[in-house]
Amino acid sequence: MVAVNNLSVEFASKPLFNDISLTINVKEKLALVGKNGAGKSTLLKIIAGLQLPTAGTVSLPNDFKIGYLPQEMPFVDDSTLIEEAKKAFSERIELERKITQMQEELVNRTDYHSDSYLSLIEKIDELTQTLNNRFEANMEGDVEKTLIGLGFKPSDFNRHTSEFSGGWRMRVELAKILLQKPDLLLLDEPTNHLDINSIQWLEQFLINKASAVLLVSHDKAFLDNVTNRTIEISCGKIYDYKVSYTPFINLRLERIEQQTKAYLNQQKYINETKDFIERFRYKATKAVQVQSRIKQLEKIIPIEIDEIDNHHVKFNFPPAERSGDFPLIIDSLSKSYGDHNVFSNAALTLRRGEKIALVGSNGEGKTTMVKCIMGETEYNGSLKLGHNVKIGYFAQNQAQKLDQSKTVFQTLDDIASGEIRTRLKDLLATFLFRGEDIDKKVSVLSGGEKTRLALAKLLLEPVNFLILDEPTNHLDIHTKEVLKNALNNFTGTLIVVSHDREFLEGLVNKVYEFANGSVRENIGGIREFLKTRNIQQKDGEHIAETIPDKATAPKSDVPFAIKKEQDRNLRRIEKKIATKEELMLDIENNIKIIEDSISQQSDNPEIYKEYADLKEKLNSVTEDWENAVNELEDLKKQYGRQ
After folding, report:
1. How far, in Å, CA of 491 to CA of 319, rounded?
2. Is residue 308 predicted with pLDDT exceeding 60?
3. pLDDT-based confidence at 136, cuts 50/70/90?
4. Which of 344, 417, 616, 632 could serve as a FRET partner for 543 with CA atoms 20 to 30 Å apart?
């Protein structure tokens, strides 16, 4: 058991939290929540013994082991991946080395009856017993299983760690911490660098194999699946709820309502008491009562209402011109880097207004596909953007494209138009820029702050096709909800690359999975995709449902096989419509060219004949297009897809 006793922390004489206490019991899984700057990371560091509090203590049992994963940390790249992971067993390896050294010494000695010889035997027995009690035998298997669970491939094991990006290096550090099997895991945003597969694996590890866990995360589904207790830091105090995150939200609202009611009653009492004192201050017959009321006022402890984020900005995307019915058609698309095939024969057809997710392990080609769409890399196959498509693109490095000389406020003010201009400060507050933050130069912002600003900027630009690559990485839960609501109200087309299941739930209606060099279409939202993938797991290992049930979740009585056939029929007609639209556009362009020629040389009879033929062809293609559109609408009615 860990006991935090009367802990207080001050920075520059300003209290962060004051006189807080809590206990963490064996096998408990706790979420630590609170607004940015409330002190969550500070509390983790104090429990980990990396920072001293202003006052108070943290009590730990003897030989208690803590594993701590911060949001960022320095790396030492002096080994291969497998060698680095095995550093988790440095204590075990050192113990084995000592035992081996003593055994070699024992072999070379002949003073079998001496006290020192017998003492050496006892020491070897003692260390061997410690080794067997504290460490499991299958070190190699544990290392490989953990690395693969976190997304590494066996072919990565002998690669030098310097070859991996910072996100993958954080996975190595997480693997080392998990392999140490500490008595308490302190995890600060552990899912930031993980994909959906790895997050699911980590959930099951924490639920089934970890001892006590205290974690900070902005991944709502992850918190709900792993934790059974929520500790909130607010206004320098902590509140302890014996529930996971979603029930905590409702209980917190009830607490705020109770505090508000008590605060208003207290203010009413204070005002009435002050009125009494003022009315009778100079009346001798009321002197005793007046003095009594003054003492009562002095004893009152003011009721505080805990901080609650009221920056619930609702805004509509700026109006943009309507795109064609099919903003994107991809057919037989392949991409390779040298001998490495990223994906091949990918097919994807998007209707206007459709919202899809690209998911899969890191390195499987999601961002590469986005770069193909944006024309940032070469590819083989067919990729066509539809008529009048205007793309808004949020890349993972979008922050680098901001004007460093502008302030935070200027960055949005320069492009905002319409009613939202009057609420830019509220919008910035939603993206965690408050007070003096809005006057900071972009150049002095942290990487996470720049990313949030770049995302806010994108949401003010008039586009009809949004492509977002990991937009939620630096957002808190509230800001993610604001973004999700905005995207749900967006009438254009959306492609989003994300590992955040809660964010994708209810937002996308189709999922494309990137795995093993192929791109697979999955009809339905993220919940349906995860259920299907769990059923199809080859190793038979069950993974629990990973998104909390919602009463409002859409349900379908159509069997999956029939639904898939229906979708295939709809896609066939949609592709036909898109082809006809392209042909109509080509004919119209040719007609315009001839009309320009007629105005220059009206005496050429061949031009008039070609013009008449094109007009007739346009009428025929238009009729085919109208028939296909009607056929699509009839099928949608038949399938109940209106």
Report:
1. 9
2. no
3. low
4. 344
What is the crossing angle of helices 245-280 and 287-299, to 10°? 160
Q: Find the mean pLDDT for residues 153-173.
A: 87
CA-CA distances (angstroms) from residue 501 to 224, 321, 322, 393, 470?
Answer: 12, 31, 30, 21, 12
CA dihedral over 409, 411, 417, 419, signed as positive or negative: negative
Question: Are the CB atoms for 186 and 50 separated by under 8 Å?
Answer: no
How far apart CA 545 and CA 527 sit, in angstroms, is 8
Q: Residues 71-84: what's their mean pLDDT?
A: 85
> Which amino acid belongs to residue 173?
E
Q: State whether residue 350 is helix, strand or coil.
A: strand
Q: In angstroms, rounded to a whole number, what is the distance separating the alpha carbons of residues 432 and 105? A: 63
Classified as helix, coil or strand, 544 is: coil
Q: Are 446 and 433 in contact (CB under 8 A)?
A: no
Report which secondary-structure segment, H or E, holds 519: strand 518-523
Q: Are 339 and 347 in contact (CB under 8 A)?
A: no
Place of tokens 């009778």: 280
On the question of pLDDT at 533 being above 80, the answer is: no
Take residue 532 and report the two structure tokens written for it. 């299907």
Give the pLDDT confidence score for residue 493 in this predicted structure.
Answer: 95
In angstroms, the CA 310 to CA 313 distance is: 9
- Cα 236 to chain centroid distance, Å, stands at 27
| Cβ neighbours around 318 below 10 Å, total | 15
Closest Cα partner for 546 from 563, 561, 530, 523?
A: 530
- What angle, rounded to 10 degrees, do the helices at 115-134 and 90-107 form? 150
Is residue 112 very low, low, confident or very high in pLDDT (cuts 50, 70, 90)?
confident
Looking at per-residue confidence, does 516 or 512 come out higher? 512
Give yes or no for a contact between 71 and 170, defined as CB atoms under 8 angstroms apart.
Answer: no
Task: Give the pLDDT mean for 224-247.
Answer: 91
pLDDT at 550: 46
